[in-house]
Amino acid sequence: MSVSKPFIAAALKRLNGKPFPPNTAEAMAEVVKVIERLAEDEEHVTRIVDKVLTIPGPYPEPAIFSQCAESTATLTYMADPLCSQCGGCGFRYRKVGAYGYSAKCDCWARRPKSLRPWAMGDGAYAG
Ligand SMILES: [Zn+2]
Q1: What are the structural domain ranges in the chain?
Q2: Which carries the bigger pLDDT value, residue 82 or residue 122?
Q3: Which of 65, 81, 85, 96 shows a CA-CA span of 20 to 30 A to 104?
Q4: How far apart are CA 97 and CA 87, in angstroms?
Q5: Could you list which residues have their CB under 5 Å from ion ligand 1?
Q6: What is the per-residue pLDDT for 118?
Q7: Ligand 1 center from residue 85 Cα (angstroms)
Q8: 83 Cα to the center of ligand 1, angstroms
Q9: Model confidence over 4-38: pLDDT tens digits?
Q10: Which residues in 84-110 are b (16+ Cβ under 10 Å) and which e?
């Protein structure tokens, strides 16, 4: 599920026409790391770069890459809507001695965004 750094570095070259691209190898490596963490697969890297190219202005900050990754993702990190332990809410009641508390359920994972009904009409970020 992870994408190779050379693939990401090659895809990011499409952004080099933007003003003020990263001017050191270290800065570029950081951008590659950001994309590596965000991207689902190679097609997603391409969608992220496509989206960034629609935004006017200089070479984007990592937060912009994050927003573009979110708005072009097909997967999202969420609880299992059909979980028998938490009923899909993602949290379970736990008790230690006399104390009760709510804890994150074990069912959280990357799942298709279409399972998240309130995410319909994506594009809330980065226009
Ligand atoms: Zn659960």
Answers
A1: 5-73, 78-112
A2: 82
A3: 65
A4: 24
A5: 83, 85-86, 105, 107
A6: 58
A7: 5
A8: 5
A9: 999 999 999 999 999 999 999 999 999 999 999 99
A10: eebeeebebeeeeeeeeeeeebebeee
**What are the phi and psi torsion angles at 11 (to 5°)?**
-65, -35
Handedness of CA 50, 126, 71, 28 (dihedral sign): positive
Structure tokens at 46: 């391409």
9: its two tokens: 């570095």
What's this model's pTM, rounded to 2 decimal places?
0.74
Q: Residue 5 has which token pair?
A: 């750094």
